[in-house]
Amino acid sequence: MLWLYNGALDVESILSDWYREYRDKNFGAFINFVGIVRKEGNIEGLSFDIYEPLLRSWFEEWQKRAKSKNALVLMAHSIGDVPIHKSSYISAVLSPKRRVALSMIDEFVEDFKANAPIWKYDLVDGKRVYAKDRSLKLPNSGILSSKD
Which of 118, 5, 144, 114 is nearest to 52 (CA)? Predict the structure, then answer.
């Protein structure tokens, strides 16, 4: 339930696909979060690199947490360039009870921002510039570690 796409995400299509896939699976709540690239300074968009094996491992841990609460976590993310006002990230939590989904979507998005192995670059004048001031170091990841 982790989808990776080249370029900007088609939000309407992805959310519609997820809804059609899971609407009859007896979940009472389908809570989603859509991240939109906003204009900051002189950027034209953002660009993303992903270390897929580590991302899949991180995501599987979240699936286990969700399953323990009879919930399901879904996520889509962009690889490469995403222009401003387009989406690079969508996540959703489905659960029988809304409180579980509401709580879990908040925890999931915050953990994603802090720990997912995704590197963000600003697009400025057609070039990728590492967004160091808006990036977090990954724990236990060598030169990217937060133990500096």
Answer: 118
